[in-house]
């Protein structure tokens, strides 16, 4: 299998993969406060680019912050805190968050892994006013392995793909909300296959159609490949 990564790919709900030009800009754009290297993530809704990033604290924790720009980072909105309760001590050595700005609803959705006061796991927060104020985060799944997430939204449906924080063999799962992120009716739907190690999830949704991609390593360790599954939500 050839080596492949999902880091700079854009996935459509039909399962098509292209280069993500917005992701390539993440290494060039400077948010309005100090960011942990490699953690800035962007999402565009209309002419506005919404950003989320980890910002380091002196105690080796980090704050999850967000802002938006209408001119590609020349000027920014005020910074909005997404989650400031991190109890980890890994500094900037952490997985980046993921963000999806939905032009249909005006909501901004964020998913991330963090060591919260009640324990480590995967969390979700969203803003209902285009990133001005983020609601209190909710846990999606608790577990010790704090890995990558990917989030997508289309109207009522919000889908989070994530690296499972609990499995012995790395695998990818989904959390699904049919209520704009207010409630996640399904918190763990397995996606990847049991006979391989899956990482770097990528998800897209449009209406009832959803696709998930991930980087898969063979059990023999001979290489990695990009896997894609597509289907319809019920």
Write the layout of secondary structure elements.
Layout: E1 9-11, E2 17-19, H1 21-24, E3 41-45, E4 48-56, E5 62-69, E6 80-83, E7 98-101, E8 108-116, E9 119-127, E10 138-142, E11 149-154, E12 157-163, E13 172-177, E14 186-190, E15 196-206, E16 209-218, E17 224-232
Concise synopsis of the structure shown:
By secondary structure, this protein is mainly beta. The radius of gyration is 17 Å and the shape is globular.
Tell me the strand percentage band.
over 45%
Which word captures the global form?
globular
What's the rounded overall pLDDT mean? Answer: 93
- First and last CA, distance: 33 Å
Quaternary structure: single chain
Describe the main β-sheet briefly.
Answer: 4 strands, antiparallel
Give, in spatial order, the strands making up the sheet with the most strands: 3-4-5-6
- The DSSP helix count reads 1
What does this structure look like?
The structure is a single chain. The chain is mainly beta and 234 residues long. It has 1 helix and 17 strands. The protein has one helix at residues 21-24; strands at 9-11, 17-19, 41-45, 48-56, 62-69, 80-83, 98-101, 108-116, 119-127, 138-142, 149-154, 157-163, 172-177, 186-190, 196-206, 209-218, 224-232. The strands form 5 sheets. The protein has a 4-stranded antiparallel sheet, with no helix packed on it. It has a 4-stranded antiparallel sheet with strand order 7-8-9-10, with no helix packed on it. It starts with 8 loop residues before the first strand and ends with a strand.
């Amino acid at each position: 299998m050839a080596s492949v990564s999902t880091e700079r790919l854009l996935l459509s709900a039909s399962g098509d993969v292209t280069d993500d030009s917005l992701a390539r800009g993440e290494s060039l754009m400077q948010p309005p406060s100090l960011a942990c290297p490699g953690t800035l993530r962007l999402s565009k809704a209309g002419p506005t680019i919404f950003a989320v990033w980890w910002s380091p604290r002196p105690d080796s924790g980090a704050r999850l912050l967000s802002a938006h720009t209408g001119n590609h980072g020349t000027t920014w909105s005020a910074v909005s805190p997404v989650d400031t309760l991190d109890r980890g001590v890994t500094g900037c050595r952490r997985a980046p968050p993921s963000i999806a700005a939905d032009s249909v609803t005006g909501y901004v959705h964020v998913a991330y892994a963090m060591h919260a006061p009640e324990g480590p796991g995967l969390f979700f927060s969203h803003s209902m006013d285009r990133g001005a104020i983020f609601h209190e985060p909710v846990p999606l799944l608790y577990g010790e392995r704090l890995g990558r997430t990917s989030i997508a939204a289309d109207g009522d449906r919000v889908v989070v793909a994530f690296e499972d924080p609990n499995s012995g063999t790395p695998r990818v799962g989904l959390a699904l909300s049919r209520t704009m992120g207010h409630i996640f009716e399904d918190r763990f739907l397995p996606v990847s296959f049991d006979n391989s190690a899956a990482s770097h999830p990528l998800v897209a949704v449009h209406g009832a159609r959803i696709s998930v991609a991930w980087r898969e390593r063979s059990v023999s360790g001979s290489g990695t490949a990009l896997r894609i599954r597509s289907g319809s939500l019920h």
